[in-house]
Design a protein that fits this description.
Layout (H helix, E strand, L loop, with lengths): L18 H7 L1 H4 L4 H13 L6 H27 L8 H7 L1 H5 L6 H5 L26 H23 L5 H30 L23 E4 L14 E2 L6 E6 L25 H14 L2
Parallel strand pairs: 1-3
Antiparallel strand pairs: 2-3
């Protein structure tokens, strides 16, 4: 169960209202790699974990912290919107033609829908969606996804840091960036430990027998570009990271197969095909009579 403590993990107070920046900050709240995604991702991974102990505790602990990050950002956005979201609109339009072209850069739904509050959307107003999260039940696959999520989140927060000179906003972003640093390293450490304990290995899933995959192509680098420099990389020759094979380099595909003929679905689906329409109509009527 969850309990809420009316206290923030770190201060979240801007020096002044800024409706334009509030819209930008929505990306790290409700975007693909925003805090809502990360919090829900860790939560579902914890609920889907099949073994007790440190791995599940890790996910529960970090997931709960991420919900606090959602709260800090939502409160920061609400404070950035505390004054009339349109109060500085004319000054913005007069001073910056580019921003004027996008109506000052604000999200009008911050006012109309949320009453000067944060929303579960990205910086373009696209709604947050559950398809953003990864929770496969395979801890190695999930931990790699988590490391990527923290990297993308830190990248976006660092970019946002340079888009404002508000000290209060920068203080919060500095804290979140620092936590992303920890979380990146945490997941990489967990990946190493998971493999060292023999619970999972590369390639994922490691308990699928490799003898059942196509042995001819499983470590081939196939260059489908007219560029040649990729052949110089460690992925084109030498031992593979999983320790199970050797990379080989090939210009283009090493396999081919004939293209199957076009499909001929049920005429009642009304796709265009070579048969005359009258034939299609008769065929459909016969099938209807036959109950097929």
């Amino acid at each position: 169960m969850f309990f809420h403590k009316q206290e923030l993990q770190f201060k979240a107070k801007p020096d002044k209202s800024d409706a334009i920046y509030a819209r930008k900050l929505q990306e790290v709240l409700g975007g693909q790699y925003g805090e809502i995604t990360i919090a829900m991702q860790y939560g579902f991974q914890a609920w889907n974990t099949h073994i007790p102990g440190k791995w599940r505790d890790l996910l529960f602990g970090i997931g709960s912290e991420e919900f606090g990050h959602v709260e800090m950002l939502a409160i920061m956005i609400a404070q950035l919107l505390e004054k009339d979201p349109n109060a500085d609109m004319q000054a913005t339009v007069d001073s910056d033609p580019v921003m004027a072209a996008v109506i000052g850069g604000t999200d009008v739904q911050h006012a109309i829908v949320a009453g000067a509050g944060a929303r579960a959307v990205d910086s373009n107003g696209n709604p947050w969606q559950g398809s953003y999260i990864t929770a496969s039940g395979n801890l190695l696959a999930d931990f790699y996804a988590n490391a990527n999520g923290e990297m993308q989140g830190r990248l976006q927060a660092a970019r946002l840091y340079h888009m404002t000179d508000d000290k209060g906003v920068r203080d919060l972003l500095s804290f979140l960036i620092a936590r992303d640093t920890m979380h990146q390293n945490q997941w990489l450490a967990a990946i190493t430990e998971l493999q060292a304990e023999g619970l999972e290995q590369l390639p994922v899933p490691s308990n699928f027998p490799q003898k059942q995959e196509n042995q001819e192509v499983h470590y081939q680098y196939l260059n489908f570009s007219d560029g040649k420099a990729a052949s110089e990389g460690s992925w084109a020759s030498g031992p593979t990271p999983d320790g199970n094979g050797e990379f080989t380099y090939h210009d283009g595909p090493t396999t081919s197969a004939p293209m199957p003929p076009p499909t001929q679905p049920d005429p009642r689906l009304y796709g265009t095909d070579p048969k005359p329409n009258v034939v299609e109509k008769v065929t459909a009527a016969v099938k209807d009579i036959a109950g097929k």
